[in-house]
Design goal:
The protein is mainly α. It folds into 2 domains: 51 residues, Homeodomain-like (Arc Repressor Mutant, subunit A, Orthogonal Bundle), CATH 1.10.10.60; 112 residues, Orthogonal Bundle (Tetracycline Repressor, domain 2), CATH 1.10.357. 72% of the residues lie in helices and 0% in strands. The longest helix is centred in the last third of the chain and has 24 residues.
């Protein structure tokens, strides 16, 4: 089996470290140590930590399975619930110590980095559009506004789950969104 490229080792390590510790707590040295590569090799592949963060944002977006929201072989609201159940399970798998990389970057770095601000804005827009398209398919009233509410409510539930280190915020999200708002 071929060994991953140094660039991929760095991206893999940054994905984990940014998710575990956040943007500000991760220096290039931590990332390269985690990747098992010399610090100098970082700059052969990335001009800055910020440039690497944008690659991580893209990879994180891909890992969130947004394409499954458009799978018309599954009933729309079942797709939406399944999407958020997947996200909740992923966070629970790490004992509620990791949140959403997009949300984390928003609170940590977007105010200080125009490039990261653009990246998180784009990530949230893509996610919200995918949810709005699904809600439109389901016949929801005001699907764009509702999608924005659902995505923002989810991000709040993630913060609550991380603070309490349990799934109570997720249970409240599912109850309000699926039983009350969409029920």
């Amino acid at each position: 089996m071929a060994r991953p490229s140094v660039r991929e080792q760095i991206v893999d390590a940054a994905f984990d470290e940014f998710h575990r510790h956040g943007y500000n707590a991760c220096g290039v040295k931590l990332i390269t140590d985690t990747a098992g590569v010399p610090k100098g090799s970082f700059y052969n592949h990335f001009e800055s930590k910020e440039a690497l963060a944008l690659v991580v944002l893209d990879r994180y977006g891909t890992s969130r399975r947004l394409d499954e929201l458009a799978d018309r072989s599954v009933e729309p609201l079942a797709r939406l619930r399944g999407h958020f159940e997947f996200l909740a399970a992923d966070i629970a798998r790490y004992d509620y110590a990791r949140g959403c990389v997009v949300g984390n970057f928003t609170t940590e770095a977007a105010d200080h980095s125009p490039a990261i601000a653009d990246g998180v804005r784009s990530a949230f827009a893509e996610w919200t559009k995918a949810v709005a398209d699904l809600l439109r398919e389901a016949g929801a009233r005001d699907p764009d506004v509702l999608a924005l509410f659902v995505v923002n409510a989810w991000e709040g539930a993630v913060v609550g789950a991380r603070a309490a280190k349990d799934g109570a915020s997720f249970a409240a999200f599912f109850s309000v969104v699926f039983d009350t708002v969409l029920g």
